[in-house]
DNA sequence: GATGGGGCTTGCCATCGTGGCAAGGTCAAT
DNA sequence: ATTGACCTTGCCACGATGGCAAGCCCCATC
């Protein structure tokens, strides 16, 4: 089967299929007489695996490890679970980071009257001389630990 | 003041300062006789503004707009607020996406016994023939709006 | 059989924000 | 004067993806 067909039914674009091949994530595809790449159901199956892993936020490198775990009939389910749990942790950390941004922005926005006058605590919050960002109270007196950017 | 000093007190690396100059986010720096870039307090102030905006997840392009809003003495605070609110929306959307991934992964992980045997619902969830990913029940029968992952 | 259109091939460029390295000039202290 | 830290420019890299171009292949329709 052609790459376009494999792409359509796996949900991975032809461009990405070639990229995955090039970077060694998947083995070099078989070739038809024409030189076209040739895929069978097993290839498509693997591509769909990759697609779903991408949708869950795994990097291509991590997917390489997942593919290893997938094909390793002797590995323990605990190994897979540990890998998944680690990824969940990373995702949650990212969520926490973004939520901290949201809280800061909401605090700033709450203090901005949003009318046609120019003075604006949002811009001032970004421009001010002080430390991290806001020394304004959050909308609810809920305290949050702005620990450290990077 | 040299770029290194400006970098240290603004929190923006020399590399990034040059990049911002190159892409037009900030004007071309003045030069000392030596050819070294020369920064004054106003430049550093602007850099710190940029740094804080980056920390809040704005893209460089958006920061360009923010700088415009900052220096535009006649714009309405409502304009700034609308901009901030739009950004908050984008951030929240991203949070929702990641949280959907986390939920899926947690569901999968909950069904994995995590012992030394090889069979593992996590890998199977990625590998299976079916649709999006899990047709397993989430840990608690808490319903969540799986709106759009793509 | 020829022609056209769509799919395939490779290769290169761009994104976005950041880091690294290299070859050379500058500055300040010893 | 030498040394070491800093600065300059320019290029390459990442990660994952998209786009474009030149050229070949395949199939259907005339």
If you had to describe this structure to a student in words, what would you say it looks like?
- The structure is a homodimer.
- The first copy, chain A, is built from 6 helices and 2 strands; from the N terminus they run ααββαααα.
- In chain A, helix 1 crosses helix 3 (about 40-55) and helix 3 (about 40-55) packs across helix 4.
- The longest helix of chain A has about 35 residues, at about 75-110.
- In chain A, strands 1-2 form a two-stranded antiparallel sheet.
- The two termini of chain A are about 50 Å apart.
- By secondary structure, chain A is mostly helical.
- Chain A has 2 domains: about 5-70, Orthogonal Bundle (Multidrug-efflux Transporter Regulator, Chain: A, Domain 2), CATH 1.10.1660.10; about 90-150, no CATH class.
- Mean pLDDT of chain A is about 85; it is low at about 140-150.
- Chains A and B meet through helix 3, helix 4, helix 5 and helix 6 of A and helix 3, helix 4, helix 5 and helix 6 of B.
- Chain A binds a DNA duplex (30 and 30 nucleotides) through helix 2.
The top-level CATH class of the largest domain in chain A is Mainly Alpha
Q: Remind me, CATH topology of the largest domain in chain A?
A: Multidrug-efflux Transporter Regulator, Chain: A, Domain 2
| End-to-end gap of chain A | 48 Å
Largest interface by residue count? A-B, 54 and 55 residues
Structural domain tally of chain A: 2
Helix content of chain A: 55-70%
How would you characterize the largest beta sheet of chain A?
Answer: 2 strands, antiparallel
* Structural class category of chain A: mainly alpha
Taking strands numbered 1, 2, ... along the chain, how are they ordered across the largest sheet of chain A? 1-2
Q: Give the topology string of chain A: H per helix, E per strand.
A: HHEEHHHH
What number is the mean pLDDT of chain A?
A: 86
Q: Which value, in Å, is the CA radius of gyration of chain A?
A: 24 Å
Work out the strand percent of chain A.
Answer: under 5%
Low-confidence stretches of chain A: 138-150
Query: How many DSSP E strands of chain A?
Result: 2
